[in-house]
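Input chain follows. Return structure tokens only.
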Amino acid sequence: MKKPLLNVLLSIFIVFWTFSLGFSYAITYVDEKSPPLKAKPAIVLCAFGTSTKAKVTFDVIDKEVKAHFPGYHIVWAFTSDIIIHKVNQIYKRRHIHKRLYNLQEVLAKLYAEGYRKVIVQPLHIFPGTEYEKVIKICKKFPGLRIVVGEPLFYRWERVHEVLETVSKEFLKPDEGLNILVAHGTPVTIIRDNITYLGLDWLVRHKYSNVLVGTVEGVPSAEEVLNEAKKYPVKRVRFIPFMLVAGDHIMHDIMGKNLEEKSWRERLEEAGIQVECVTTKVNGKTYYKGLGLYPKVVELFIESIQRCIKIMKEY
């Protein structure tokens, strides 16, 4: 082949190669099946979960949040693997086409639907291990810009606000004793227990007839029930200090004829009249967890609003 022709062919090859290379970096390949990216962030309401009828609490919260944030995609995630498995098995047996998802599954689903911004609002009461679990998951999830809201008692001012609301349920000192029933934690980590102990200190100094007791942790059932038996008026009112007044309230606190005696049974054996705060939802009576107080739902909504503001400032 003559040299001039070889040079021409070589030049054409170089130009073509350069042209192709340049465009290979300029073109963005988009799968036609991929959904368009969403402008607004999705809102994830993240709770521990319950397998009891107390799940009506979630319906109440869901309705209020959707009313306050029209146009936002609002979904639920749960942090208890045991609850997720138990409820999904119930759905399966009853041929109900629903299921609960954990936070990782929900975030992955939102990403696949075109969301790149997500607000995760924990519905946990205390900033303990479940809340830390949420934080760890969100930090490690790739491809999403996530703002995590605060649990209810992240700030002491919120504790005071909730106490002010719940105090309307309290018996007066000459009527009997009130016990705030919290979940508690079996581990001794300071950051998990400080709010429980701080709450106990607070109510003892603020009220003359209010105690804090936990199902798992401190102050323990043994301690608080022994104090209750010494109170001069033989009447005790339990106030659930959990988002939902579910299994723990129904069985550990107010249950009867269990293998291990409930708090109710132990006090009744001591001649004490026992009751638990209730409320009506859609004509049915339920033990009243914190999620059934409008003020508490309002505080969660305020947290979501702060998260939306932070997201816009990114």
